[in-house]
Amino acid sequence: MYIAPPVPRPRHVVICAGGILDASLLSVCNEADVVIGADRGALALANHGICPDVAIGDFDSVTEDERNQIRSCSKHYQDFDAIDKDYTDTELAFHTALAWKPAQITLLGATGTRLDHTLGNIHLLRVGLDQGIQCQIVDAHNIIRLTNSELTLPRQPYPYLSLLPLSMTVTGITLKGFAYPLTDATLHIGQSLAISNQFAEEEGTVTIRDGYLLVICSRD
């Protein structure tokens, strides 16, 4: 499966998935070169007056009228059989974006009541990172990123920081600009040592030497 990008080598691709979506976050679509709607996420875009460049999925979570609405609104529409596919709708959208080799991918509507889908979407961050693409999941209360080297983070509007290993071990963790600093620390999967830190400065830096570390900025 390959869908040609609507613009040459897009810098920023936004994917709207079918999870819980705060409409205020859709403003990020204005900053994107390409917007993809994954299944019901495409309907959310259409309902807010945003025509996705690509709508993709099996569309088993929408009615036939809603499917027609998505099809008529979208610049490119690609549907799949609900049974005969090996990927979730969000992963189909994600692999479409990866093929274009953008600098950044932002996922909206990628968290929600289905923990299995939420965790699956978080794991997609590693696929992007391994291809050198900066990826993030954004919802009303969190920005979730993954690093295997260094991240610099602004304080606002998510003032809390939590670190969770996505590999068995993460070594060389150093924090600067936070209330509880770390220097050359090690985290093993299952540890909660680095949950709910806070920014002490307007900008903070997370550096690691080896492993994959989830970096979650949150607000209540």
From TrEMBL:
Domain Thiamin pyrophosphokinase thiamin-binding, chain residue ranges per copy: 147-214
A GO BP entry: thiamine metabolic process
SMART domains associated with the record: TPK_B1_binding
Keyword Translocase listed: no
GO molecular function, one term: ATP binding
Enzyme Commission code(s) on record: 2.7.6.2
Matches recorded under InterPro entries: Thi_PPkinase (IPR006282), Thiamin_PyroPKinase_B1-bd (IPR007373), TPK (IPR053149), TPK_B1-bd_sf (IPR036371), TPK_catalytic (IPR007371), TPK_catalytic_sf (IPR036759)
Enzyme class: transferase
Keywords: ATP-binding, Kinase, Nucleotide-binding, Transferase
Domain of life per record: Bacteria
Protein's recorded name: Thiamine diphosphokinase
Organism per entry: Paenibacillus dendritiformis C454
Source lineage: Bacteria, Bacillati, Bacillota, Bacilli, Bacillales
